[in-house]
């Protein structure tokens, strides 16, 4: 068991405090940090957290506890300074995505974590679901041969589904698509080479910035991904991880994941469709610690054992997903021009 502190108890941070952390038995909480009296009062009154475990500064928490892991659940722009300070104070760190706002900041934190001998993990929670885990295994085993083309669709209608971050810059590419971009790399076991992206804001949209986009992404092994996503789509709602059609030389792998809508949760689904054969549903193995619980349990195991599992979303690995975000934003700003990933990664 590892001892941990949590930094950031706002709306999303409180969700971690309530729904995630108590369900990961390998983590013992020894501190909660937030400068807001209201936020700390809420974890005390609603979750029964001992006031002695609540601190207003990271330095105070580091001094008063023997935690080895810092759980950073703050707004994105606070990730870089807080994560850096956590590493300076000797913590291993798990941080919400996107873990920095720039590639340069991400590289700096990755190198600093290495120098400190600490684990830096990004909570790419969509990796910890049955369907993408199974899909990644099938691709790695060469099921249906090399992947030729992948189609990925994400459809949600923000105004009717409780979305509230109308003034967030790049609400699609930076906040939502990073999940899909990360899954592309995880499932294909490959890295992107270049992409072209266009985004727009539909008439009547309450978003201040573009909530809809399309992209064509080329991967190193030759797979082309056609990506269509929108927060302003009036069509059938997709699961959060989207609807995937992965086309190989000898058949297709079709799957969807995180089918949560209005407090109703459906199972992950994966279907195999061999060339000239009827579709075959695949029974998926359950995941003991799904979603965010999976990322938290993963860093606890790595800190305890020193063994890094396949698919672990370290800060270094996550630079590839962050690069897809930055490249797609750059391409969209250039009217859809092709952008080389190496231009972004440097």
From TrEMBL:
<feature type="domain" description="Gfo/Idh/MocA-like oxidoreductase N-terminal">
    <location>
        <begin position="7"/>
        <end position="123"/>
    </location>
</feature>
<dbReference type="InterPro" id="IPR036291">
    <property type="entry name" value="NAD(P)-bd_dom_sf"/>
</dbReference>
<dbReference type="GO" id="GO:0000166">
    <property type="term" value="F:nucleotide binding"/>
</dbReference>
<comment type="similarity">
    <text>Belongs to the Gfo/Idh/MocA family.</text>
</comment>
<feature type="domain" description="GFO/IDH/MocA-like oxidoreductase">
    <location>
        <begin position="134"/>
        <end position="241"/>
    </location>
</feature>
<dbReference type="Pfam" id="PF01408">
    <property type="entry name" value="GFO_IDH_MocA"/>
</dbReference>
<dbReference type="GO" id="GO:0016491">
    <property type="term" value="F:oxidoreductase activity"/>
</dbReference>
<protein>
    <recommendedName>
        <fullName>Oxidoreductase</fullName>
    </recommendedName>
</protein>
<dbReference type="InterPro" id="IPR000683">
    <property type="entry name" value="Gfo/Idh/MocA-like_OxRdtase_N"/>
</dbReference>
<keyword id="KW-0560">Oxidoreductase</keyword>
<dbReference type="Pfam" id="PF22725">
    <property type="entry name" value="GFO_IDH_MocA_C3"/>
</dbReference>
<dbReference type="InterPro" id="IPR055170">
    <property type="entry name" value="GFO_IDH_MocA-like_dom"/>
</dbReference>
<dbReference type="InterPro" id="IPR051317">
    <property type="entry name" value="Gfo/Idh/MocA_oxidoreduct"/>
</dbReference>
């Amino acid at each position: 068991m590892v001892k941990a502190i949590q930094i950031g108890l706002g709306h999303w941070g409180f969700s971690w405090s309530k729904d995630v952390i108590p369900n990961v038995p390998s983590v013992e909480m020894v501190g909660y940090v937030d400068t807001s009296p209201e936020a700390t009062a809420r974890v005390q009154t609603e979750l029964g957290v001992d006031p002695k475990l609540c601190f207003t500064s990271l330095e105070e928490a580091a001094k008063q506890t023997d935690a080895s892991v810092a759980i950073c659940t703050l707004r994105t722009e606070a990730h870089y300074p807080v994560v850096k300070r956590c590493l300076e104070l000797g913590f291993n760190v798990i941080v919400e995505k996107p873990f920095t706002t720039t590639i340069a900041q991400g590289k700096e934190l990755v190198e600093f974590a290495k120098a400190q001998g600490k684990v830096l993990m990004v909570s790419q929670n969509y990796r910890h679901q049955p369907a993408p885990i199974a899909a990644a295994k099938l691709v790695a085993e060469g099921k249906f041969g090399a992947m030729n083309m992948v189609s990925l669709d994400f459809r949600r209608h923000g105004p009717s589904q409780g979305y509230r971050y109308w003034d967030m810059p790049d609400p699609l590419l930076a906040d939502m698509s990073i999940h899909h971009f990360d899954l592309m790399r995880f499932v294909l076991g490959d890295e992107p080479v270049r992409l072209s992206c266009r985004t727009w804001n539909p008439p009547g949209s309450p978003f201040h910035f573009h909530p809809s986009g399309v992209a064509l992404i080329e991967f190193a092994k030759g797979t082309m991904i056609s990506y269509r996503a929108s927060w302003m789509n009036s069509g059938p709602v997709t699961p959060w991880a989207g609807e995937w059609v992965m086309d190989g030389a000898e058949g297709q792998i079709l799957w969807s994941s995180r089918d949560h809508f209005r407090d109703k949760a459906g199972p992950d689904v994966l279907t195999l469709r061999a060339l000239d054969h009827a579709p075959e549903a695949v029974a998926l193995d359950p995941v003991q610690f799904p979603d965010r619980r999976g990322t938290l349990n993963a860093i606890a195991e790595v800190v305890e054992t020193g063994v890094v599992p396949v698919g672990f979303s370290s800060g270094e690995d996550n630079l590839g997903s962050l690069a897809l975000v930055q490249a797609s934003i750059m391409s969209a700003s250039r009217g859809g021009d092709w952008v080389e990933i190496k231009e972004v990664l440097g």
